[in-house]
Specification:
This protein is 17% helix and 31% strand. The protein is α+β, with helices and mostly antiparallel strands and 879 residues long. Helix 2 runs antiparallel to helix 4 and helix 6 packs across helix 7 (439-450). The longest helix has 21 residues, at 417-437.
Amino acid sequence: MFRTTKLYPCMAVVLAVICVIFLSNCGGGGNSSVVPNTNPTTENPVSYTNPTPTPILVTKPAEGYLLVTNSVTDEGDNVENLKVFDVPAFKVDTSGNQPFIQQVADTLKEDPQTWNSPQIQELYSALNASLFNSRPLPLYASSANLYSSYQDSENSEPIPVNADGSFNSQVLTEAGNSSTELEVVINEDTCLEAETVTSGDISSSCNDTTPGLKSSPSKIMVMPGEVVEVLIYSYPTTNLKNAGLTITLNDTSLGCISPQIFLCKGGKKDYTKAWVCFHAKKSLSTPISTTITVKTSDLQLEIPVEIVKAAASISGTVYTGGATLVKGFVKSFGPKSHCKLDENGNYTLQKVFKAHNVKVRATWWTTENGQKVRHREEKVIDFFNQDVTGFVFGVPPTPTPTWTPSVTPTPRPRYDEFYEEKIEEVICQYEKWEAELGKLQANQRTIQWLNGQVSDGPPIPDEISGAASIGNPYDIWVIFKDGRNECISTSDPIIMEEQGTDDPLLRKEEIKPFTHLTATSNNCTVKNADVIMLSPYYWQKSDRYLVELDIRKRLEQNNYDVKYINTDTSNVTDPERKDIDMDWSEAFWFGKYVGCYALNWDNIVTPKTFETIGKYGIIYINAHGGPVTIDETTFNPDNVPPESVFRLSCTILAKNRNSKELSPLDKWTDENSDKEFKHYSSSIDQNKGWWFYRNREITMGSGQALVRKWVKELALTNYYFDYLNAKSATNFEGSLVYWGGCCAWHMKNSFNTAKVYIGYDRFSQATWAYPFAYNFFWFMMYGPKDCPKDIIHGDGSLDIPHSPMPLATPSFDIDKPLHATEALNNALTDHYKVNPDPAYYERNTDDVDTNGCTAKIWQKDSNEHIYFPVPVTVTVHKK
């Protein structure tokens, strides 16, 4: 199974004229921003389809010393590694900089106890031997040429490399990346790769780089007995020593790491970069993995480490889409992991190390309409067992039909019950293992079982080809042979509580008019006074402090036009409405799923609902959220990897009682079946899919009466909201968007056309999230004076669990409505001290950390004071 693909076809003429055609200052650093046009206009346009745009590229300075090391496997095969250092490896350079090996020794000897440690002595001995036997690139191969991974080695000049292996040049790299990949072409049979850090500033208008700690390489792959050198740095640049940098190997049975090493260059130590050496023990069973934890006082980074030894082959074909193949090669990591293409595009990588997330990269050139075109595609594969065949790149040809009549199977529609039946079989087996092993081990066992790695397991359900985990260990991604996939999420059950007997707060008090809110009070406001509130899981509601109930009725009483979709499954709160009928008898008698049947589609949130919300001035969304590609148990909201995928839970998957009639949800997923999120797909366009099905537990009762069943929900990814955000007809221009869902803050870029965006930075508790949002809107509507208070303590604190006593003197007028930033930062954060969440929650090992959940605000113009809109028309008469 493979997950990530990058395909970059680039015309040869582009790199030759790239700096002439498109040079612009990208803001802050003076870097030249280059946007290559992969399909230049010609009289005969190239017919090759580019499934994903080439990323925005910039030229940035990079420098270092290149050397090649050799390792030998147990079978006697040679493995070449290209490494980049800030200083020479073994000799003093012309500037007097001490070599890397000497500076490592000096650092280790600062603490005699560390230096005399047997593990450190073994590490240093292995490092010394590796560097002593290494060679600067020109001495290793005089024919070697250095390029950035985005250069066309057939049609551009290589980066100059001096005799000592040093280079100092501008390199082409992705905008927003603080590192770049280098390629060394030695001959048609050998190509080496390395990662290094650029020294230029990240362009501010191409803001793709997430602040935080970073490493080069970003993932460590090492053989037993080998040493690997890792560079630690941060973006933005900071003094790591003053920041309290610590580096820890999380499984010391696999090897040891050195203390952090700050290199001296030009007579001065550089504390913005730290080096660490990891030495893997010999005679380890592989593949085996761990992590290295890097921390400062406020940041954390987990570096994946995989120790590899066993190898197998990968073979397949590179398809050119009908164009004439000139040449090409396929490259991975292992003893014999480079192969040039034959005339038909076939290749065989004889020995590739077995490991998680193994990169396999194809680069090839074609001739099309008289032009030479370079193509580069990368896949990531979990590679553990037997040889892999049929691993293809490019565009496979469409089979030519023959005259012989044949029956072509019709692909199942996405709403076919077949998928639910197969997932139900997987869930049944998972629950057995969960009772025996616990959640995480049951998840791992289930994935291994579906991948054919459990010899004593039950038969794998038909038409399932495997399973995977893509970052969150609580999610099982089941892969079908037809290319479909579904997520089984085991960490986030829906809890159905018994209905309380208390009336909602709103029914106990009179609705107050907006006596202080007038048109003249607005410094600035949103584009109109229309309001929309979406609450697809309203049926999970608490009894008090609901924006979509209490605040909504206050607005309606004050003549606001409020559109709301509060999906309910009971008739307790609103006797006139029941939108979804949840039939638990189906789960008891027929399987694992609770039957969910729509009774009122007008009050059920669908993806098309989000196409309309941009026309409203105030947008409130109360829906679940969370990361898709990140481990939620170690989720760090201050260090979210770039390109991370997040989700919004659109709705549980309701059906029509008449099974022959397609529901609006089925119609939408069918129309957008090509936009389904497929983490293992060979196309980036599919990897950036809009939606996927997520199976979740649902529980009712407690103790011995606890009932556990399952429902399916439709989840929307940030890529869907990127799509809406990019279109003028559906974006959020001029609106205030408040999404009260877990981790919603990390989808702010998908709403950056809005005037204001507010979201939570991590997993939240409803006991804090609901009243917090309620108070935010109350403060904007009325001001804080009469907001709900904690009557038990009577100290002026808000009616939010563990709310402390507020400050004595507020920095704002409590009698007047507050603008958005004032309400969130000055009132809720500074004065009432409920942001972040002041409560401490007891945690089980299977729970995610909700402590300190913080609501954050982003404004397009930070100088604006944005007040709640007034539903009146103001006429100005000119004299």
